[in-house]
Amino acid sequence: MPELPEVETMRRGVAGIAGATIIAAERTPCAKRPIQIKPRIDHLNKRVAGVKIASVDRLGKRVVIRMETGDRIIMEPRMTGLVLVTDPPTDEHLRFRLRLKKCKHKELLFWDRRGLGQIALLSEKQYQAKLSDGSLGPDALEISRKDFPGRFNSSRREVKVALLEQSRIAGIGNIYASEILHLAHVHPQARCDRLSKKQWDRIFEFTVEVLETAIRHEGSTLSDGTYRNALNDEGSYQNEHRVYDRAGETCPSCGKGNVLRIVQAQRSTFYCKACQKKR
Predict the structure, then answer these.
(1) Confidence category of residue 134, pLDDT binned at 50, 70, 90
(2) Any catalytic annotation for residue 40?
(3) Catalytic residue among 114, 191, 267, 273
């Protein structure tokens, strides 16, 4: 579930480890489904032990630990992963640990209830290759208004589905796509190539507004309680959701229509039929 606001909140929460030296990288004992760690943990540890952390960055929905050697540890939360510097929600789902020194935080933890997350150590060359291989588009908070429509407007795909494609733009997920399109008054099933310049301008505008506001609220903790920030506290943007997971409720924008739920690309989409007319 973690999308750009949640991952950016995690990044900010653990940014204080910059300047720390890694003592060791460990795959923690876990009886649950093992997460993918590449290379093998003993090889990964050999490359990072004794190395200083230069910065903590974000790449789309991934937290990136950049070291002074140029190597980077990429932590991808996927559905239920968390990056923490405090006690995890449970011990049984703890998957990975960086033990640290010369830092107020003694460790960086990766916790994952479902075990779908991934950790990879990339060299500078491998990282740059990943940036240029076409699998990841520009960051949703870095792309310009001018360039934004060109990532989508020749596609025949439904706009909600296209917004989730990380190769077009990185960071938007299921929750925020519904919220963005609702505020932009665009039907989620509208085809990208049939939207006007004015509609693309509104989508861009509310992409920035929704994501930045969600970051200020430290992300969305849904009813399952899985997402937590780096200090194991809840986010609060779920209280600001206008349509996501609010099927049957009166639309907060128009006060006329009810929020509907449909399925697109095997994911739930929420919208108001009155506000978001399909032309």
Answers:
(1) confident
(2) no
(3) 267
Sheet holding 72-76, edge to edge: 36-38, 118-122, 72-76, 62-67, 53-59
**From 11, 27, 58, 61, active-site residue:** 61
228 is catalytic: no
Q: 132 by DSSP, 3-state: which?
A: helix
From 1.10.150.120, 1.10.8.50, 1.25.40.180, 1.20.1330.10, which CATH number describes the 149-272 domain? 1.10.8.50
Using a pLDDT cut of 70, give the percent of the chain over it.
100
Q: pTM of the predicted model, to two decimals?
A: 0.95
What class has domain 4-132?
alpha beta
Which tokens go with 255? Answer: 């006060």
Catalytic-role residue among 3, 76, 179, 218: 3
3 is catalytic: yes
Predicted confidence (pLDDT) per residue in 24-63, tens digit: 999 999 999 899 999 999 999 999 999 999 999 999 999 9
Active site residue 2: yes
